[in-house]
Amino acid sequence: xxxxxxxxxxxxxxxxxxxxxxxxxxxxxxxxxxxxxxxxxxxxxxxxxxxxxxxxxxxxxxxxxxxxxxxxxxxxxxxxxxxxxxxxxxxxxxxxxxxxxxxxxxxxxxxxxxxxxxxxxxxxxxxxxxxxxxxxxxxxxxxxxxxxxxxxxxxxxxxxxxxxxxxxxxxxxxxxxxxxxxxxxxxxxxxx
Length: 192
Known about the structure:
- By secondary structure, the chain is mainly α.
- The protein has helices spanning 7-32, 39-61, 71-92, 94-97, 100-122, 132-158, 160-191.
- The chain is globular, with a radius of gyration of 17 Å.
């Protein structure tokens, strides 16, 4: 019996592990580094998030590819670069990073950093992985632009536990956009 996923199954597995990885990794990182007021704390917190996300993604990738041992550290490094850059931007331009545009710019940089780090690993196994960086960048940009403020607005407007649950569901859906976009690129790259 083959252990290879079909294209649809690969996409679904990828989207789910990316989403779950983001959520668990973000919770782990923010729990271990709750203050996150300096570049090192941000970098470490996001590195943990990236390592958790990358581990889930690696479990899906390893079914098809053998040469992706550096996927997990590459994903962690991409997230860590973002964490440090985000902290530095916050220190320099405090009033800009918390508005939707500033937040989106930070997440565009995240998507690019993570996308480049992952692409450097993926291109060795998947010859047609050129769209990986743009997909990662767009996925993170959409996530960042909407997440920061939608969650706050919805949870404040509705209030209470229900508001937090609705806001959380919206954030979860947005995280799935990243997984879905990169999942499409992964499936298409294989078909080459």
